[in-house]
Request: fold
Amino acid sequence: MGRTVKAVELPVLAPLDRGAGQLGRQLALQLRAAIRKGAMRPGEALPSTRVLATALGVARGTVVEAFEQLVAEGFLEARSGAGTVVSSALADTAKRPGRSAPAAPTTKTSRAASTPLPPLRPLPAPALRYAAITQAMQPVPNVPFAVSVPLGATAPDDTWRKIGNRVRASRSGAPSGYSDPQGLRALRVAIAEYARRARSVRCDADQIIITAGTQQGLHLACQVLLETQDQAWVEDPAYLGITSILAANGPPERVARIPVDDEGMRVEEGLRKAPDARVAFVTPSHQYPLGMPMSMARREALLQWARARNAWIVEDDYDSEMRYAGHPFPALQGLDSQRVIYLGTFSKILFPSLRLGYLIAPPDLVPAFCGARILMDRLAPTAEQHVLAAFIAEGHLDRHIRRVRSAYAESRSFLIALLEKHLPARLATLQAGDQGMHLVLWLADRLRDVDVVRAAGAQGISARALSPTYAGGGADAPVRQGLILGFGGYPEADVTAAVLRLAAIIEQQAGRPDQACR
Reply:
């Protein structure tokens, strides 16, 4: 076995004051302070005297003087064949109650190093808003009923790995310089053909911008299409990703929450609340989180509003591939490619960590979206774009979707049967629907979904509460209690056990006297 060579890092030291003299003493003080603060730990090697002297621009004798002083004080020790290291005895000393590292003379340098940090000051309002987003959008563990977890039959097969190996072995997958912020052209060509064939989208490769997923697409759309005071229509309930972006970057009154019913967004309510809004954010093929598609009449009404008001529609084509009865609904973009900005992603259908999606914009908006992308993170990782381009062009994505749709259909039917068997209708009922990767389980009014989710998490069950997706405070879209339950990729035994635990939790929560919704 080859010998492992450990790199020795240079300690971070302040410049020595050459005018004050006694450079060896100054260096010893700085090293002593670094050890006492924990910046250099017991057993950690120091650079050789020659390397450290060169880095500091001093004579080697100056470093030798500092090392010898610290060895004498017990801060350093010289080991044969290993050079000079922080004394291992300091680790034992630190573990003993009431003991600390050896004392050292108090100087201006050491006092400054040990000065306590000031107390935390009040955070700016944007910081508080973003911290709240972190709390609300934390990932959940990959156990039932987390959404979009690629396990078993729903995970990409060996084809993805083989294409990845092939691409990385070729020149195209090698690290390179900055590439086109719009994305790899081969991938954009493949996406244009796929979107035309599978989603009835009208575009060419020059209208496509590769993104890091739908979330980035939504952020770009807000930056490009909205002034600070412009209003936007957002469904109620809606994906927290879009409501959080708007709330974090403008006044609350800019967001007009528009209720949905069995036909999708109620366009007439949008006309009543905010007729001059600049953008409507919708999920017309599969409303998130409730699951209904937008009717053709509502689609036409929405497009008529956009044309009349010179407004834009941002279409998040959420879970559109996963329809289990009939063919998926066509994209809204196909009805008006000049008014609709279309967002798609591969994170759900392949795997979330891929972080590749796409935005399709009208031709005159493409430069604006590219500019916003440059300022955000410039471009997506190139190697994964090559892999995905080949995966689509060679027909593997179509085969993968067919396989995943079949697996999800079986998992969905299995979960529905379990929920209907073990959960009484007086406490929970299922939202009707025939597509997507999750179910909505409505809870009785006396239950609080956030409490159920908290109790379920303590028992190894991942679920999302529905109530935070509502705006609240309006009779036209009252907050309802429910759970968002993913059903893909989990073994049937695990799903069965999770349903039994969830049913017991709901029964227990329903029996608590403090469960009246507040």
About this structure: The CA atoms of residues 16 and 26 lie 7 Å apart. The longest strand covers residues 255-261.
